Amino acid sequence: MGFNVGIIGCGSITRFRHAPEYKANPFVEEIVFYDRNIERAESLAAEFGGRVAVKLDDLLTDPTIVAISDCSSNEAHHIHTSKALLSGKHVLCEKPIALSVKHAEEIARAERKSGNKLMVDHNQRFTKAHQKAKEIVEKKELGEVLTFKTNFGHQGPEEWGITKSNATWFFKKERSPFGVAGDLGIHKIDLIHYLLDDEIEDAHAFHGALDKVDEHGNPIEVCDNVVCVLKTKKGRLGTASFSWTYYGKEDNSTTIYCQKGIIKIYHQANSQLVIEMNDGTVTHYELEQIQTNDNQTNTGVIDAFIACIVNDETPPVTSREAIASLKVIEKILDIEV
């Protein structure tokens, strides 16, 4: 028994991730696309064999649509996701859940009031290497976790966005004020919370616009680099770097230092997980390549979202968890709340 899904926003994230993964899911019958720019919606409807909603309300009131992906730009999530939930739809919201914890709490209230499912697209939890690392940490195979470091950097959103231009909304303070911290950093904060079954409670950071310029040649209004020191509730210490200026190969690596050895994730192309024990034993796991902007593979996010609807289960990334990560980003950027 299948159902229809709707997508709000028809940019790159929809074209490369949400639409193809819905198309491949056996429970999804038809995708309905909405974008303020109707040509974009028409283009994706033609590419994926779906149809177009001319107005957002057409999408929200369509009784055949059971679930919606909110792929609008960050400043609109609290509006669109809340409205979709209160219209009786299950929602998969792109990250960050909102541009402030205050707006995110608004979404959480709509979720509770509606009784519908809300999942947030923190997709790093779904890679095989990260899931295996979590299992190793949970079983304490290397003893307790002591410290960690994590990186996420690439050449910047102008290389990935639909317009391939430095006029991208990612560089605009009113639309994406967290800069690289909201684009890449929040993924790694969520990942650390997931891997360690812990939460970061303290953060100190430097951040700045070191190299990126906008379409007028001026330094961008948001940070393109962040380097931070983090402390978790359970007392683990770590560092994190997020960058839009890694002008070479993308870096999406994490290292977890434990009492009996080290877990290295996505340091090597062919061994996505490497365990180095303090007795000299080294174990290599060949699991899968990490998804990058140049290597678009199935993230597993859409399948997990559809499965939690079909099986009436709690979504694997909840609003509470998304808000916990957002709180850390506000701390990192020293945003007054």
From TrEMBL:
Bilayer-crossing regions: none
Pfam families from the UniProt entry: GFO_IDH_MocA (PF01408), GFO_IDH_MocA_C3 (PF22725)
Superkingdom to which the source organism belongs: Bacteria
SUPFAM superfamilies: Glyceraldehyde-3-phosphate dehydrogenase-like, C-terminal domain, NAD(P)-binding Rossmann-fold domains
InterPro entries for the chain: Gfo/Idh/MocA-like_OxRdtase_N (IPR000683), Gfo/Idh/MocA_Oxidoreductase (IPR052515), GFO_IDH_MocA-like_dom (IPR055170), NAD(P)-bd_dom_sf (IPR036291)
Record-annotated GFO/IDH/MocA-like oxidoreductase domain positions: 130-263
Domain Gfo/Idh/MocA-like oxidoreductase N-terminal: 3-122
Protein name: Gfo/Idh/MocA family protein
The species this protein was found in: Oceanobacillus longus
Lineage of the organism: Bacteria, Bacillati, Bacillota, Bacilli, Bacillales
